[in-house]
Amino acid sequence: MINGKRESKEMESPNQEKPSLFNSMFKAKYDKITTDVSHISQITKELAQDDPRRVVHSIKVAFAITVVSLFYYFDPLYEGFGVGAMWAVLTVVVVFEFSVGATLGKGVNRVLATILGGMLAVGAHRLSSLPGKKLEPFCLGVCVFITAGVTTFLRFFPKMKARFDYGVLIFILTFSLICVSGYRDDEVIDMAHKRITTILIGSSTSVIVCVVICPVWAGTDLHKLVATNLLTLALFFQEFGVEYFKTSSDEIANDNNEALLDGLKNVLDSKNNLDSLLNLAKWEPRHGRFKGSHPWTQYQKIGELARHCACRAEALHGFIYPHLQIPKEVKSKFRETRCKMSSESGIALKELSLAMKKMTKPSKAKPHLINAKQAAQNLNLLLKSNIWKNLNLSEVTSVATVATLLVDIVTCIQEIADAVEELASLAKFKDFKDVKVAPQIEKAKLGNQGSIKRAFLC
Amino acid sequence: MINGKRESKEMESPNQEKPSLFNSMFKAKYDKITTDVSHISQITKELAQDDPRRVVHSIKVAFAITVVSLFYYFDPLYEGFGVGAMWAVLTVVVVFEFSVGATLGKGVNRVLATILGGMLAVGAHRLSSLPGKKLEPFCLGVCVFITAGVTTFLRFFPKMKARFDYGVLIFILTFSLICVSGYRDDEVIDMAHKRITTILIGSSTSVIVCVVICPVWAGTDLHKLVATNLLTLALFFQEFGVEYFKTSSDEIANDNNEALLDGLKNVLDSKNNLDSLLNLAKWEPRHGRFKGSHPWTQYQKIGELARHCACRAEALHGFIYPHLQIPKEVKSKFRETRCKMSSESGIALKELSLAMKKMTKPSKAKPHLINAKQAAQNLNLLLKSNIWKNLNLSEVTSVATVATLLVDIVTCIQEIADAVEELASLAKFKDFKDVKVAPQIEKAKLGNQGSIKRAFLC
User: Fold this and answer.
1) Which of A17, A362, B261, B332 ranks highest by number of CB atoms within 10 Å?
2) What residues 406-425 of chain B have any CB closer than 8 A to a CB of chain A?
3) Cα separation of B28 and B167, whole Å?
């Protein structure tokens, strides 16, 4: 019995170790999985909260695919198209995009390119069969080679790339598929007809679902993006007026500073987003307050000027918290003029942004722009005055640089104002009546809300 | 007879008018067509000369499609796959991209997503058939709806979007197609197997043709783009030294001015191109002098610093041709220091660019950077000296601004140098031996060749 107990103890010890090793490994794995899952769910939550349209879009895509797959499930619908019905499902998956412009653009491209490719392929098939059955594969091969080569090169043309890149791809696809499979299937026309019909069904389902259920308009997004960029610049200039004379040890400064720089970076990096939204907006029909003939290209001009202005603002940002060695008197005089110039520039930009958002004429921006110009003239007078005489040039260099850059920026904002004015006249914006400014700005979630209130201090 | 003649004359006059109207319309049409054709051929020529790889790419795509279509033309190959062989053609058309990275990325995405989507679809098909034939379409519909919705939302995840966007799309596609068509075709596994095999054939054909015939590496393009951006900045600073003291009436000035600004704009707008090349480069295996573990993300850092520097340079550009009212003596002293600072910065950047191009350590840039810093110190001393005492601040404002911006730029170039140094150590670049500088730069076609020679004047 004693021996038996010993044995059982000996047996137990490795057994006890094994589960503990296994347990710790299992626990480590389990912990890693729970961390990963919580991380993913966190990102998911952020993505959904950041833009709830993403959730709606996912449901819309799932709905459209399910609707099209009805062709397979129900016999009467299936009878008509057979296996070809899968092209409808494929079309929905590939064509359905986030915005109406993108979906419409892809849909139109796909349908037109399929019709053109199908027709040409039928022609090529007929021509290739003329020299006889033996030479047919050779002729078809040559046709496919030349067409694929030429159309692939077409994709490098800037205008084609911007609007018809997907169409050219689908043209090559349809042409090759019908040409090649036509060699087997003598009913080429029937095949082309079925393919075009199913693609039409898929494309129109996508477009209808995209437009009817909570549509996302690329044009509206473009309009908002440009207006937001102007507001970001406005916040920067208003904030700059306050921050410039602070020391870097101030509490809020650093957070605010980063938020300002991030905002400028967003404006500077918005080119690609803006250009692609512009291309998509051109596909969209009349919607909301945007007419069919809305001057979309004008947004590109305003966007470019805003980036130009952001570049100057980034250069200006290097002079927040300078170690000014100038006397208090000089400082306060300079502060007043510079602060006015910066804040008036900011308000002018904010008014331009608001006018764009409300689609009214930017008449309220003008007086602030005039004030900013007046402040610039005052600054010039101040620079010409004698108060600087007893100072070293190196001591007032940063003051002079900020002043010069601000004068340059006022010119830049004048150009932006002109471009917004041009947009207002081209798009026939209404006259400004009575728009409450403050609540509108507070509603604009730029992740920089505290700074707006502080900006008004200036 | 007379009457007859009269009649014939009356008949002639409208007849004579008609052909002339017809002729003029025909001529106008003909002229328009010839103008269009010559315009298109001009663009084609430019596109081909600008980057001859575009022509090679078009031929490669045509060749790959023709090779894959052999499956249809030859009976033994056709027997194996039947109509499913068209998936191979479709895969080549969709997967074949300009660079190896893009083709490989799309190919791998397509194959993996097809396998995963196919396997899950077979599972879903089996599960759905459990509750009975009547409930099967309903279960399949729910499966497709949930999978399509969840995976569409996955496409919004930044990391997924960057590398696996196409894969997620293909996953939804395969899953939906096999789930849906599986309801008709009981041999789901056979169908999935055929689809995966044909897609593997299409993808591997694309990758092989893309890699074997004149491959275009995204990594090499990324490396060249970043080096070219540094060279563009170098040219700007060297040119700025010369142009700053010219008057705007100088002959060459305007052309040069525009070329300089265009160069800066290219650097500022390169973010998107750089980011997408980075994503593609990560897919590429070892090639040329780039190892598999090449530190590609470092290029993003250098690119961002270069854009930051270009921003400062654009602000600086506003001060070319200032109306300087300062005495000649002061001007010449200032000119010497500023010119040295600008040109040494330019040479330092050029050396950094060359070191990157040659993949050597950027040891030759260091002395020029030290010189630039020394010049910055001298400039500070000059600003502290008495020569400015008798001048108005407004008269020397632009001088002070240029000086401050240049000091800021020297700091920025130091950061670029550090980043290039880091890249050189991470990628184990060789030590610099003997690289001829001048011919290398003259070979770099930036459309700004004249300016390089002028830059050496400074």
Assistant:
1) A362
2) 408
3) 51
Q: Is residue B269 less than 8 Å (CB to CB) from chain A?
A: yes
Q: What is the secondary structure of B293-306 as a DSSP string?
A: T--THHHHHHHHHH
Chain B residues inside the 8 Å CB shell of A403: 397
Which residue has tokens 């099967």? B136
Reported as a single tens digit per residue, the pLDDT across B157-199 is 999 998 999 999 999 998 988 887 766 656 677 777 888 888 9
∠ Cα A138 A141 A146 (to 5°): 130
**pLDDT per position as a tens digit, B401-433:** 788 888 888 999 999 999 999 999 898 888 766
pLDDT computed for residue B306 by the predictor: 94
Instruction: Tell me which DSSP letter residue B389 carries.
Output: T
Which tokens go with A258?
A: 């980063």
**Sign of the alpha-carbon torsion through A395, A401, A407, A409:** negative
Helix and strand element counts for chain A (H, E): 17, 0
A401–B398 CB contact, under 8 Å: no
Query: What pLDDT, on the 0 to 100 scale, is given for residue A45?
Result: 94
Residues A244 and A248: their CA atoms lie apart, in Å, by 10
* Residue A51: closest C-alpha in chain B: B156
Place of tokens 């470092």: B298
d(CA B66, CA B56): 15
Using an 8 Å CB-CB cutoff, list chain A residues near B180: 69, 72-73, 86, 89
How close A217 gets to chain B, by Cα (Å)? Answer: 18
Measured CA to CA, the distance from residue A249 to residue A247 in angstroms comes to 5
B148 has a chain A CB within 8 A of its CB = yes
Nearest chain B residue to A269 by CA distance is: B271
B65 and A CB contact within 8 Å: yes
Q: How far apart are CA A406 and CA A285, in angstroms?
A: 41
- Angle among Cα B16, B21, B27 to the nearest 5 degrees reads 125
**Average model confidence (pLDDT) across chain A:** 81
CB contact under 8 A, A145 and B65: yes
| Neighbour count for residue A308 (Cβ, 10 Å) | 19
Mutate to test the interface with A, among B304, B393, B412 (most CBs of A within 10 A): B393
Write down the pLDDT at residue B454: 35
pTM of the model: 0.83
The torsion region of residue B216 among left (phi > 0), alpha (psi -120 to 50) and beta comes to: beta
State the best of B47, B58, B79 to mutate against chain A, taking most chain A CBs within 10 Å.
B58
Average pLDDT over residues B338-352: 88
At B195, which amino acid appears?
R
Nearest CA in chain A to B59: A149
Q: Which residues of B touch A69 (CB under 8 A)?
A: 140-141, 144, 176, 179-180
> Of A44, A94, A84, nearest to A64 (Cα)?
A94
Q: Touching check for A47 and chain B: CB below 8 Å? A: yes
Q: What are phi and psi of A431, to 5 degrees?
A: -70, 150
What is the structure's pLDDT at B12? 46
In three-state secondary structure terms, A9 is helix
Interface residue B83 vs chain A (CB under 8 A): yes
Q: What is the pLDDT of residue B389?
A: 67
Question: How far from B102 is each of A173, A294, B114, B281, CA to CA, in Å?
Answer: 19, 36, 18, 8
- Of residues A305, A303, A264, A307, the one with CA closest to residue A281: A303
Q: B105-122 pLDDT, tens per residue? A: 999 999 999 999 988 988
What's the token pair of residue A59? 């449901």
> Is residue A187 within 8 angstroms of chain B, CB to CB?
no
Looking at the complex, report in whole angstroms how far the Cα of residue A45 sits from the nearest Cα belonging to chain B. 11
Distance of alpha carbon A61 from alpha carbon B101, whole angstroms = 29
Greatest CA separation found in chain A? Answer: 111
| pLDDT at site A327 | 66
